[in-house]
Amino acid sequence: MQTLKISTLTICGIDELPDQSERGVSHVLSIVDPDLPALEAFQTYGAHDRTILQFHDIIDAAPDRILPQPEHVTQILDFGSRLIQSAEDRVEGHLLVHCHMGISRSTAAMLTLMGQTSPDESEELLFERLRTIRPQAWPNSLMVGYADDQLSRKGKLVAELHRHYALQLKRDVMFEELMTRIGRTRELEMGRSAA
Hints:
Elements: E1 8-12, E2 27-32, E3 49-54, H1 70-85, E4 94-98, H2 105-117, H3 123-133, H4 141-150, H5 156-171, H6 174-181, H7 185-194
Parallel strand pairs: 1-4, 2-3, 2-4
Helix pairs in contact: 1-2, 1-4, 2-3, 2-4, 4-5, 5-7
């Protein structure tokens, strides 16, 4: 198992960023819409290393929207590689991954990073850890598919994602309403098929 020497993993949305400013965040992965203005919340943070990725939280192509691409997941894995390479230079750290709501892009990214650093850990345990970090996790299925390919998980990460969706649908009706509203019914079907 590789180590990040990161003692705290946090996933949140933009509105939660001010609450994290006093928590010693050392590394930030921001995944935001391309047209989002600069986030002022980070001005109150201490010294930290921040990477910004810009694409929309969608799973189907749409006009004037940037669909997650394999290269975005490659950039997430590059970020993880830099954390692994710099681990010797720190005693501990606090990794914050955020997107707009802290539900989809950020949870897919954190899952990718955990899969990268724990290549022998089962997909079931990776998702259990993800739910512990962010109970409302609904990872973007397109991003998870790319991560599955790039981490050579042979479809197991995607299969476990379907089971995760099924668990989340049982846990909270909010997911049914939210994913229907934003046009992600294909993910709802993935969860229903795994129930």
